[in-house]
Fold these 4 entries.
Entry 1:
Amino acid sequence: MMTMRKLMYAFTILSAGAIALTGCGSSTSTGSTGNTDNSNPQSGKAVQQQPDTQKPAELSIYLNSSNKQEFDELLAPLIKEKFPNYTLTGIESSSKMGDLVASGNVPDIIIGTKGTIPNTILEFGLDQDLSELIKTSKFDLSRIEPTYLDTMKYYTSGKIIGLPLNAPVFALHYNKTLFDKFGVAYPKDGMTWDDAYEIAKKLTRNEGGIQYRGYSERWHQMFMEFNQFSLPYLDAKEDKAAVNTDQWKTLIEGFVRFYKLPGLSFDSKTGYTEEDLKVFATGTSGMQIFAQPEKFTTFEWDIVSVPTFKEKPNGALWGSPRFMFITNASKNKEAAINVAAYMTSDEVQAKLNRKGLAPVLAKITPEMKQTFNQDSTFYKGKNTAAFLYNKPAAEPPARAPGLVNFTKAQGILIAEVQKMFTEGLQVDVNTALRTAEELINKGIAEQKASKK
């Protein structure tokens, strides 16, 4: 089982399948809901309503992107601090949703990332349009970072079926000990990838029979899956690849150059993304985004903001927040949205923020940036404001209904890109993208043919 310590930084660094913790706040914060009309006589504006915290309700919560430890030790107690008369039941993901649907035990809330929408909610027809509940409760959606709402709408044809809990954030880790050893100035917030490349050139060298590198990475995830241009692998309107483009070329050339610095050599194993991510923890690499702070024990380190491409300044890596989705089978939808809305309140978000769980708010205060992740064992005292330096990345354009979901596209592109810096192969970027395009298009055609 994942430990609580690992839970606290897993969502800080990873996305797509990572999880987050939730907290408590006061009844005066603006994230709660209710059903009575109330207005501010001074401003004339509608005031966010407060829920009836004493009214009993039973809620079952499916822990699709959570686990029982988090629910029992953190989530449930904190929700009950605000709603003491809510009876909460956590359902582990080992209980298959298909079985729950078949037995009539559909949960009220599903905790999950964007991938949960097509793979669970839409697959079993559990999506609930919350527009009417949001309207009657006067929940202020403008408080929420619109990018995260758009992430959800991307899969739901524009419907809001839940509210976000925590946002995905990233930072560039750097080995201070190695920088000091070679007399190289530390990285700074706000760098471009060109700046990072110049630093990497100074660090990449062979001394005492040890090959030092300026940069290492779980490169397929940080540069492709979470790419800062929000580029898709498949075309939005047609059944064809979308990888042979100028933007993909810019992005791929922008990171492959780190692997072609003088003295570096990679075979099919050492260049593999899952092997490359291990290098930084050995102390022989200067910089890396992918975080394993529990392994960074033999050297001093700190963090700065993730470098960005000059073509897209301040653009963050593309990831997924975690949501509380409310199902259409819930018999306590009002109580469910009370809980989901409460978790977006300013005070709750501030408390989560200290645990390294990034706020989903449209406006993040300077204090939040300074206190982010400061309760963390690993990041306390680090430059954790770097996690919140860049702007959230948007989803790519939604694909038209009925198009083939060719899931092997990413793997094909990764394999062709790795050839660019694999000894004995070393294809150029145009060849890599053209070959990937051809293979993806062939795969799409074969998948379509198999369904006829």
Note: Residues 12-48 have pLDDT under 50 and may be disordered.
Entry 2:
Amino acid sequence: MPKRLFSVGLLTLSFTLTLSGAQAQSGILKLPLINDPIMNPVIAPDLGSVLINKVIFPGLVRPNEDLLPEPDLAKSWTITNGGLVYTFTLRNDVKWHDGKPFTAADVVFTFKAATDPKSGSRLVSDFSSIKDVVAVNSTTVKFTLSRPFAPFLTLLGHNAGILPKHLLDGKPLNDATAFNRSTPIGTGPFRVTRVVPGASITLEANKDYYGTKPKLAGMVFKVVPDINAQVAQLRSGELDWVNVEPNNLASLQNDPNITLKQANAVQHFLVFFNQKNPLFAPAKVRESMQYAVNRKAIIDGVLKGYADYPTGTLPTALKKYYDKTIKPIQYDPARAKALLAQAGWKPDAKGQLVNAKGEPFKFTLIVDRGNPSREQAALAVQQDLKKIGMDVTLQPLEFATLVRDYLLPGKYDANLIWWTTPPDPDQYSFYATGQDNNNAFFSNPKADELLKRGRETADVTQRQKIYNEFQRLEMTNPPVLVLYYPKELQAIRKNLSGVPDLGIRDALRHSEDFQLK
């Protein structure tokens, strides 16, 4: 599990750091991103954006080391009317990075935008249960839900950072280019001072931060798309924390300046098969993929065993809800061919799969360039599918290009990627029909009904039954091909302290406690 992770590397920037006493700020923490971020948590779709937004934009609550919600911008809350009304009392000592006071009006503005599809929000599905949100006064916000919503507090602490109304009101969030790309204003422990596109984002400690005063003088997020380049910079001291891949471990295990830790990640790595493409619409075709791809070989060979074998989209990290009684589907190419035959795909004289019209089963699999584990996994998927007669072309792309030009507009056949989901079994926004994150365009009425009931049911035992049924449905009608549930492998330089025992996404919500010695 992740221990105290991180390290020091003092960069000389264009300003001088003044140290005074044991609590003095010291050090600039250096972290990698794989793409230029969108510094707006409501519209940001990608990992790089999520990481830096955790530091700039706090939410009403944040996860503690048990991944349970604890106060952040809200100092307390009550739940009334059978779970339909949440009333939050806000802190009265919070300022935006431009010095303006934070109030309940900012919270109302943020969630009005978050629930408006026209705003560009990526959080509409997460908060579709919100019927109304009002400012009772400057430090009190009341949410009224249209139905009970079990993961509400968890989702408030996941990606729902609060935005400044005084800077963004009256314009589409996607049009606020300067704010989103170079001059974001949040309330977090660090504020952006400089952005060099394609290179870095520099932040300094927020002297007006409402919580524990930051112990770091600042942070630098460096754009380094290639994982091997990240590891090289970690070893040289140019970076302080890198989440690495298993094939990087050998070069780091004997480095006296680096500590290696594991974190349980609420993640599933997967292949999206675009179900707008007639090839992948039949459930039998998608079911066959589970037998056609040797996922154990990927876990043992590419990941060196640092992953759990999958069943469906709910990972083993969700221990309370993961159904251990389901027998995982094992590699069985003969079974894959039989399912494909039932779907109308049979081998021709050359062993190539064709339909009744003689058309080949042909598609392109895209993957982000610069991460050997994902590139090798994609190659393994391609090779396994070719063995059963599919014509698969592998196309590596820069991550930002893949997300912007292919994934989000749905202009792809298949895509090897991953999801990091909240620490709750609710996957409605990912796999219910027409939802924000349903990039596979999966649609199944029974799945929709189960996912809806799951998020509206508070009783844990009943939720377990609902999600167990959903996991069983996925065995024969999978929304995606789940490849594995990874471990988060954290490589950090040894002189960083104050980091909670969490994965990097959630740990960054506590960055004011990080310290470089």
Note: The first strand starts at residue 28 and ends at 33.
Entry 3:
Amino acid sequence: MEDLEISERKTPADHSAMDDFPPYHFRCPISMEFMKDPVTISTGVTYERNNIEKWFFSYKKKTCPATMQSVENFDMIPNHTLKRLIVAWQTKEDAKKAICSTSSTPRPSNKHDEIQAHLNTILSSPFKVNSIKKLRSIIEIDDETKNDFIRSNGVEVLVQILDQILLESSDFTTFRACEEALCILHQLPILEEGKTFKLLSKQESTRSMAIMLQRGSAEARLHTITIFKKMAKTQYDWSFVVQDQGIDFFKSLLELVSDEICSKASSCALEVLIEILTASKKNRLRAIEAGAVCVLIELLPDSNRSKCEKMLQVIKLLCECAEGRQALVEHGLGIVSISKKMLHVSNAATKIGVKIIWLICNFHPTERVLEEMLICGPVKKLLALLHMDGRSSTKDKVVKIFKMHGNSWKRYPCFPCNLKDYLGLVNDPR
């Protein structure tokens, strides 16, 4: 009965995850089938008699299959108490199924039994990775199986696995199980009022995922950033993750942004960055400290339309801080990279680019910066926008920029003289 005593020492979280499952100690650890003739061996683990006899006497094994402990005493003691519990549980479940068949509860999928069997194996067996892989192949079938998995408390089970990498005793096998768990979790819907969101947004879970974002395989990092992207579309508060992980969190996001192989991971990381930076100035300062401005400026020239717009949006958010503007103007390609994307990629990119130039002109208008804008192209692009028909907030910003610095630029021979009257510029009396 030692295995029954162990089950009673499980945490409340373990019990809540198992409320709707067949108790794992009712199944043989070898076959994962309900035991009909349970026997306990010297290590205290209970097995179906036929299975453990085959293990010892047919396969000539001298270890306990579940614990891998060496076994010298091959005596088997019938576990009558467990057998009575199994029979009682099966009787109770048969009655519950009869009631459920007449209720309006969602019908389980045709993979329901397989899902529960694999969840039980994950809870009870030290060999979790293969069971999670099998579960993953089932979950990928359709939305019905995903919903059945959630109703079966599958998310609770996988979150428990995630949390295990926070333990000092976690090993490579635990890490691999965590990676496989993320393979399933990233496929699930994450809605703000849903159970999946509530479990994944717990501090332990977000800390585990942040660790996987830094140390996981390429596939695990993609799955983690996909989950973070879904969480970013809710009202999730990122302050704990940022405070807990510091600039390392932003460095891991920037590494994904720089990923030239997996464009999906890069795009997701940019979307997560936008949400985090929009939330608070402190977050922007952490990102700047992690080198975000430099990384984005160097990636910007080769970016496609979608990534370019996202990168410009991140740069714009960073330039709302003095430290971000300073980093941009000090980078040799900062101003010219922004300029080249204006009027070249999309209306959205042009609009964001003008906002960035406006922030620099308004808050960081050193003589060197203004001269660089005239020489490297931004002023030429702003002039082109000024000649476009109609009025817009972008064009209004352009007019304000010229009114602020037109007197500086008009001293250069390349500045069009006919714009002076249009902008209401006058000779500087000084």
Note: Strands lie at 38-40, 46-48, 77-78.
Entry 4:
Amino acid sequence: MGINGFSTLSETTGKVITCKAAVARGPGQPLVMEEIRVDTPQKMEVRIKILFTSICHTDLSAWQGENEAQQVYPRILGHEAVGVVESVGEGVVDMKEGDHVVPIFNGECGDCAYCKSQKTNLCDKFRVNPFKSVMLNDGKCRFSTKEGEPIFHFLNTSTFSEYTVLDSACVVKIDSKAPLKNMTLLSCGVSTGLGAAWNTANVQAGSTVAVFGLGAVGLAVVEGARARGASKIIGVDLNDNKQVKGQAMGITHFLNPKDFGIPVHEVCLSTITYQSTCILSLFLWSLSHGNQDHELRKIKEMTQGGVDYSFECAGNLDVLRDAFLSTHDEDACTMARESKMITSGWGLTVVLGVHPTPRMLPLHPMELFDGRRIVASVFGDFKGKTQLPHFVRECMQGGVKLEEFISHELPFSKINEAFQLLIDGKSLRCLLHL
């Protein structure tokens, strides 16, 4: 017997494998647990046995079919996982059968101009691409039904299957002593959020931070800010249940927009609109409708006019604007009362949420002349193959509380229940055992 009770890897090398996978056959339809065929890896490809996988909101959005242009079926979703190498294709030299690995949706070939640049973590060939559904080598699928129908790939990974085939650029070898369950989180959520705090924003000790949306990515930002010594970490979410988990992870203040009497349809996911708040900025609409000054002064006092860093983790443009305006503003209360739109300040807003809407960025160019900046971050600006192994070692030394992100564990066969937990806002990360 091999790892986790499955057959010795060498018994399947060079053969087509029949295994179980959760197949998406239409937008919003329950995933179907099917027996599929997984082909052998081709040149510079790796076939891995998935041991654990989890579900993030990107999987949920893809399953729901929010972006019609990205819909292709049948398809195997999933991109957070950990596994072991079953076999490698021609030319793969940086890993071998039996190695413990993490799949990554934002690959790193190591040879292109992008990979050689220190200014980006994107790869010319293997960067994140939700439209890509086949392998790069030959434009074909490595998955098929028993009847021979092709099953499409997802985000370079497709981890909702007992076995999967990936380009070697999208597979990271990790320390064999690393706790496998926890390593699943490094495929996406934790790396994305914590990396945004460490790499993209470079949060400094003593600084102030606002995080809009306390899902796994948002809480990973919190964890990163806490580890860097931020003096105030303000969490914003419509779900009061996120407060307890947020405080356990390191938030110092929690804000729920509903507590301020502003209609949810006006504030969307995490919006309390007031221009001077350190947590959320307030639209002039709110001022004209008589919000309580004592609440506003209290919020402003929390950070002397605004936060140094804000992170948008909700995938909502209205929330994004509020996150942008929540960064430091010299005298926003006075200017807001005088109905002046010009503000001055500083601060960096990092965009992490996936935005399926066709709406454009809700900012006026002149707002950028006042010292505030806005950037986006993919995979926390980690270069996957070269930097993730070091991050794994940091996690093994206890610098990051990975276990706090796993809220539920279920067998792979109950994947639809895991999706429902996420839809209901009850799970942070549900770990599926294959």
Note: Confidence is low (pLDDT under 50) at residues 262-300, 331-343.
